[in-house]
Specification:
4-stranded antiparallel sheet; 4 strands; alpha+beta; 9 helices; globular
């Protein structure tokens, strides 16, 4: 069937692995599913929406202050809920051998997009880690990490705004994230976009870690 997708697994797995991998994968899947749908959303202002799905997309991407970890938790929980039930990842089969596989029922184009980003991350190697830490340090120095993006978005200095836009573009390019325009389109706030992209990076890093250890092949 066209909605079937296999993640190959190998090596020794723990119960924690069997929880963490599906949990992280479902979060990334929700993000990539929604970001691809944003291409099809047409609105000229934040108050102009055509469907309930559009409104939920807008709420998900603009309702969080992004001052700490709770914003990321809420963001990914909302993403999971806006994916239509028929498109949410479901396990069809698990075969635990060496090698084995986890077979999923989902949107295959989204799964392929995730596969490509994980591969880009693995190919980037230490460059991805260095860029992430460089951006994070820059945000600390500019005191951007604790800014409530819902209240402070208009108060960014020109130099800070340039740093934010440049950082988002560089990180997206390095990990092969091709939808930075769609992300900016829905957040209408470059600092929100960067903070979301950093949270996405951390989740891709966790998936890539399984691949680098020889445990998965997406």
């Amino acid at each position: 069937m066209k909605n079937e997708y296999k993640i190959n697994i190998d090596g020794e797995w723990t119960l924690e692995d069997l929880y963490l991998l599906p949990h992280i994968y479902s979060q990334i899947y929700g993000f990539m599913y929604s970001i691809n749908k944003i291409k099809d959303i047409s609105f000229e202002s934040l108050d102009d929406f055509n469907t309930d799905f559009d409104e939920r997309i807008h709420f998900t991407y603009t309702s969080q202050p992004w001052k700490g970890g709770y914003s990321a938790v809420n963001f990914y929980n909302y993403l999971k809920n806006i994916v239509p039930p028929k498109h949410r990842p479901r396990i069809k089969a698990i075969h635990y051998e060496s090698p084995g596989f986890i077979e999923l029922l989902l949107s295959v184009p989204v799964a392929i997009a995730i596969k490509e980003i994980v591969q880009s991350f693995c190919d980037a190697g230490k460059s991805a880690h260095s860029l992430y830490h460089e951006i994070y340090k820059g945000m600390q120095e500019r005191k951007l990490l604790q800014i409530d993006v819902k209240k402070k978005e208009l108060e960014l200095k020109e130099a800070d705004l340039k740093f934010v836009n440049s950082s988002a573009k560089s990180l997206a390019e390095l990990i092969g994230f091709k939808n930075i325009k769609e992300l900016h389109k829905v957040t209408r706030n470059p600092l929100t976009s960067l903070k979301i992209l950093l949270s996405f990076y951390r989740r891709i890093r966790a998936l890539a870690d399984y691949t680098n250890k020889g445990k998965t092949k997406f």
